[in-house]
Amino acid sequence: MSLRAATSAPAGLPGLDPRFSHVRGEWHYLDNGPVLAARGVHPTATVLAVHGNPTWSYLWRDLIAAATDRATAPAAPGEVHDVWRVVAVDQLEMGLSARTGRRRTLAERVADLGAFTEALGLDGPVVTLGHDWGGVVSLGWAVDHADRLAGVALLNTAVHQPDGAAIPAPLRLALARGVHRLGTSTTPAFLETTLAIAHPRLPDDVSRAYRLPYRSAADRAGIEQFVADIPVDLDHPSRAELDRIAAGVARLGARDVPALLLWGARDPVFSDRYLDDLVSRLPGAHVHRFEHAGHLVAEDVDYAGPVLRWLEDDVRPAGPDTGRAGAGGTGALAGSATVSRDRPASGTRTFRPIWATLDERGADPATAREPAVLDLTATGPGREVSWGALDHQVRRIAAGLHEVGVRRGDRVSLLVRPGPTLTALVYACLRIGAVVVVADAGLGLRGLTRAQRGAWPQYLIGQTTALAAARAAGWPGVRISAEPLDPVRRRVLGVEHELVDVARAGEGRELPPEPGPDDAAAVLFTSGSTGPAKGVLYTHGRLSALCEALAAHLDVGPTTGLVTGFAPFALLGPALGTRSVTPDMDVSAPRTLTARAVADAVRATDARLVFLSPAAILHVVETAVDADSGLDDADRDALGRVETFLSTGAPISAELLAAAQSIMPGAEPHTPYGMTECLLVTDVTLAGIRAVADAPDAGVCVGRPVGSARVLVSALDDDGAATGAPSDEPGVLGEVLISAEHLKESYDRRWLTDVAAERDTPPGRWHRSGDVGHLDADGRLWIEGRLAHVLTTARGPLAPVGPEQAVERVDAVRRAAVVGVGPAGVQQAVAVVESLPAARRPGLAPTALAEAVRAAAADVSVPIAAVLVVAELPTDVRHNSKIDRARLASWAGRVLAGGRVGAP
Amino acid sequence: MRVLVTGASGLLGGAVARVLAARGDQVRTFQRRPSGVAGVEDVAGSLVDPRAVAAAVTGADAVVHLAAKVSLTGDPAEFAAVNVDGTRTLLDAAERAGVRAFVQVSSPSVAHLGDSLVGVGAGPADPRRARGEYARTKAAGELLALARDGGTLRVVAVRPHVVWGPGDTQLVERVVDRAARGRLPLLGHGAALIDTTYVDNAADGIVAALDRLGDRTDVVGGRAYVLTNGEPRPVADLLTGICRAAGVEPPRWRVPAGLARTAGGMVEAAWRVRPGADEPPMTRFLAEQLSTAHWFDQRETWSDLDWTPATTIDEGLHHLTTHYATTQPTTQPTTQASNTT
């Protein structure tokens, strides 16, 4: 007996076509089935969408509208649309469905939904979609109807509350006796809070639509009961049902049922902990974490587009005909649906794990006592580690980590300063198939926190500073201290294990089986200097391909000897199969490296190969001629034996490379081009740079592709979008596309970023780099900037680096950035320069400077509307080299519109 | 083609008449004073005299209408009489005379509402919201003209923005004159980007619009196009360039833009009770023009008119330098701006 009957939705709610609103018995639901039938199209499958608490089916209005539009849009010749029916229910006691006065447990809700779909005659293939506690109900339905389940899609939800883990604070508050009823039904506080956490704020009319079914306390009774039904502890009546569903979801995952997880990262209730739990149950799922979206992810971002894309790409039936027919059959879809990433990882190459050399050298008595890793920053033991000792240490730690519970696929965040301990930890984790998460301290505390939450490691190994930061910022993961701690500090920092104990526990233990080439190996974070830091996932096959490409290209052999003043490469020595040495410096501060320290390191290992970052090179060059600490004859002899030297990590000028070569006269300087997603793409030597010094090409010549790497260019259109078919035609400005055996596997939990990076790429594995440039007739790549920094002028797209180089040839210009002001398509090019001497205040350049800059840019056919001077161009913290052009452009836009001139 | 050019004693009108005459069109001009253009037939008269207007239009195939009252301040009734009623008189006469093409030379200020303009297209003329009597009456005149498009008479409006060049009394001589007397301040920081039009480009663009009324009638008929050099520059760079071309010291002192606007408003009020005097040194409109960005999206103009500017700003400044080097510099203060009716 209803206290309030179900009603249909009124007209006039923003975004909701009232034709989709239906009532059947006690249920109100949205359904585009009748509209599709009226247009004569037959659904491929049905999406069954379940809202959470305290929303209603209005949440799904964009999906039902988009699915209907897509189904009824005219198809291109030869193309067949999939047609998706969307049925979005209002759960009983919620939304516009009836208020019956009954309290419903989770099990009853799942059963209610099953009864409803049966009454509706929903017997074709079904994809479930749920948000919040509606996610649990939708998964309950999915588990109970696995025979005709075609896929599961979820927005911020949870199916498992780990024992002992704290209930999220906002829910604890909502559940507290007294607060509960007052917060959920007596007052609309819970509803209002949920609506208020949208990012950005909901428009008023949308907020009103959400409030529509919940205007009185009686209307809100369902909200209260729903909150009360959250199984917070083992005794809760709904706990058994939740556990049943959770186990069932894992079975769906094991069956490779297509799954999609769209997640708002700023959710105070359904935090990344629950995302990680779902990923572990649905390992084949496409996952996208929206960094800036929150709990109401469906309001914060476009979720309908990605859901439809996933339906069409991953849930679509084997052939277009079977799909149409399949609407009547059961099980056809689920069986034939493809799961992501069934691509061979490493081509035809035979897989050699990166610890293979370490195993061999450590086991061979002839090499076991030879040095493997030298750390000249250390004193005493640890300064020199032999192959045998390193191998032994890696095995102990690997087995020990396994002993304390680290399993293949578990993520281990390594927040340890570069040095032998980090090297041993990396190889130990890789050996047992644990996925190392590496985020550079240069990201800063906020960036690191985002990286840690995004990757959600199960373990965190760090030194005291990192453990303290982890504690303060609430980073996830079981804490393992890399150094011994006193009991008080150990407790304060929440440390479960100390590395020495871990290693001791692994002494003499068997190692678990090795991971294979397609197993995940590492998540490396990008620098964040070209947008928010993103996790990049590498498999073992790809990491090993990287090491082999480097070794082959630089001709690294057992006797090479390697000096690394650039932290990431210090880890590669053992994999490259040669001894490596870290010079005496603060490895996190490249400007502490002196020429003499490099000479000492070269001498210590008789090294032939030196890896440095541009910032380190600058300091080395400066200190080489210092009267007190400069090089003596013995130093110069040692440096004279270096054969190859690499500048890596950021762009470097030919002048600085040449200066470095004058210190290492026997060495061929190289400066490779790459990015976190593909660490080695092309390479060019100083001689190669000099050979093209007079070429008319705009940009920086980065040389030709290395090893298996290939490069194509996707031309820019007038809007500055890279829409051209990928091509190797010379002289065409476009986005640089990269392919290589050592290319990343994917981004981490950023499916949509993957989709964008692989958009319209040729067959095989390709990556859109976001860099723009062109190829020349000899196959050399020239980089002309970032895609995001391309100006769209009335004469077409314009990449910034070419005119910047021209402007920097002006004597009075120290550094220049060319940015666009004005609307897309009619932007004017503006040069912002650091002048010599430095400008005292930012503003218009003096006439003579402006004329010189305009004339220089005119030489490369770029008209410059205005020349502005600043004391210093804004750059990234990490390299102090990547100019923040987006910020400069908006500053220049304000100034040149007549606004105030502050610093950019 | 027989073309009537009104307002040919002004800088731009004269340039248009010269371009047309040079390519062999039969050109008649109509204004109060002699046009000074060789090879054209001058008809003296005023737009407020319907009979004189009718006589001038008789026999013309096309009209390029530049004559207007263009000063920054003055009696509103005079502006309306010339820029609105005069335009109507000319349109009526043109229709009666069987004219087929009519180019209404207008101004971007007809759609300018006082904000900065950054890469915008030609918005609709709006007499109620345009600022100042000139802009209001030109807006009304443009609407009148475009409303006549259709049938045998086809109309296009062209809005050149800040026309300058050798012999320009509107911008160049005023700038040079004030700078020479040390009375030219920069408003604000002088960085606001301003689109300008070198006079030869403006004349070529107007002639292109006239030609397109003939061969791309349905593309350009009834439409308005903003016309510029497509090279916006910071206002300080432009003023400096002009001063240096004329051999005078560029402006060095600055007045805050907000202060200039306020002062401009006060000066305007003062000038209103002092009829007959020369141009006020500052108006609110001028202060806004010189301290906020004004530049335009030229893509449609270029593609529809099938035309692009031939003379760059730097080339134009070079011409200006030559001009000042070969003519007597202006020593007397600029008098009444050309009231080219």
TrEMBL record, chain B:
- A cellular-component GO term for this protein: cytoplasm
Q: Which domain of life is it from?
A: Bacteria
Molecular-function GO term, any one: aldehyde dehydrogenase (NAD+) activity
Q: Where is the NAD-dependent epimerase/dehydratase domain?
A: 3-212
Gene3D superfamilies recorded:
NAD(P)-binding Rossmann-like Domain (3.40.50.720)
A Pfam family cross-referenced in the UniProt record is: Epimerase
| PANTHER family in UniProt | NAD(P)-BINDING DOMAIN-CONTAINING PROTEIN-RELATED, PROTEIN YEEZ
For this entry, the protein name equals NAD-dependent epimerase/dehydratase family protein
From which source organism is this entry?
A: Cellulosimicrobium arenosum
